[in-house]
Write a structure and sequence with these properties.
With about 180 residues, the chain is mainly beta. It has one domain: Porin. It has two helices and nine strands, in the order αβαββββββββ. Strands 1-2-3-4-5-6-7-8-9 form a nine-stranded antiparallel beta sheet, with helices on one face. The termini are far apart.
Length: about 180
């Protein structure tokens, strides 16, 4: 039940996130290759148990080349429902490779620290988990330096018997500025 609720909240939250990356104007700091941004989302589940999920994933990147970016991403996620609550904090490196500004390949490693409460049985737990997300997708230009990304990632370390996540597949839709 927990995994189904968690998966439904994560999927609904994933569909509501945005990604913003910015590059500081070259007139201010020279020809900077640093990017800043992240994801943010709010999701919910309907029904008798209900629930709300809030997450934020800030990131700092560096454009090694015009098509290759690498950096560090953090993650904070909070989930609360009638039956279950959890807080998850994660951090790790990421890398993105852009193909002609039409497609991208992405890799993201996250180490998560998880604290949860089963409200029905009044049980608390602490855990940690590693995730290595690999994926990619399509990019549509929206403006001079703004792109919409539509893609998916899969956690290749996902183990259905030992994971707090409901599945390894993660769809994503977002906006990137500054490429």
């Amino acid at each position: 039940m927990k995994k189904i609720l968690f998966l439904s909240v994560v999927i609904s939250g994933t569909l509501a996130f945005s990604q913003v990356g910015t590059r500081l104007p070259s007139a201010q700091i020279g020809d900077s290759k640093w990017t800043f941004g992240g994801y943010a989302g709010l999701g919910g589940a309907f029904g008798s148990g209900g629930g709300t999920t809030l997450y934020i994933t800030p990131r700092v990147g560096y454009k090694v080349t015009d098509n290759f970016e690498t950096g560090i991403a953090g993650n904070f996620s909070w989930n609360n429902s009638k039956y279950y609550s959890s807080t998850m904090v994660g951090a790790g490196p990421f890398a993105n490779y852009y193909f002609g500004r039409s497609f991208y390949a992405s890799g993201l490693f996250q180490h998560y620290l998880i604290s949860g409460t089963d409200k029905v049985y009044d049980q608390k737990y602490n855990s940690n988990e590693n995730a290595l997300y690999l994926g990619g997708g399509y990019m549509q230009k929206l403006g001079e330096r703004t792109y919409m990304q539509i893609g998916a990632m899969y956690n290749v370390l996902y183990d259905s018997n030992n994971s707090v996540f409901g599945g390894g597949f993660v769809p994503n839709v977002g906006i990137v500025y500054g490429l």
